[in-house]
Amino acid sequence: MNGAETLSATEIGWLQGGDWGAVIAGLAMLHKRGVLATGVGRIRRTGSAPQDAEPLERALYAALYGSIGPRELARQKRVQRALRDVRQSLVERGLVLTSSRRVLMPLLLVALPPALLPKLVAAGMVGVTEGC
């Protein structure tokens, strides 16, 4: 992979665990940068916004008001928008299927074989034996 194809920490997190994986990766990066304080099931910001943060990290930081739980933070609108952007970036790189393909592919795998079988038999591509 060259520099243009490298994945960010939040993209790797998304590939590992979806939206929640990306949020955890973003929070871990913010904690590593020293701008988060953790408590029992709660986090709060302690420093100023990092300038070199990824877009999801910036959204997480901006959505932190007071002390909040990570799941509650992940449900904030600005974080949800940033998560959609992470997913879209992965779709554009061909690393993740679009939503329509994720739904359509299994349906086609179930519906097409029974529909094609009569045509294959008629074309003589599939042999049919009589009796046992």
Structure description:
This protein is mainly alpha-helical and 132 residues long. 59% of the residues lie in helices and 5% in strands. It contains 5 helices and 2 strands. It has a two-stranded antiparallel ribbon. Strand 1 and strand 2 form a beta hairpin. The longest helix has 24 residues. The protein is elongated. The model has no long low-confidence stretch (mean pLDDT 84).
Characteristic key phrases:
mainly alpha, 2 strands, two-stranded antiparallel ribbon, 132 residues
Strand order of the largest sheet: 1-2
Low-confidence stretches: none
Global outline:
elongated
Query: Please, what is the average pLDDT?
Result: 84
What structural class results from the helix and strand content? mainly alpha
Helix content: 55-70%
How many DSSP helices?
Answer: 5
Report on the biggest sheet: 2 strands, antiparallel
Order of helices and strands: HEEHHHH
Number of strands: 2
Query: Cα distance, first to last residue?
Result: 56 Å
Q: Whole-number radius of gyration?
A: 23 Å
Strand content bin: under 5%
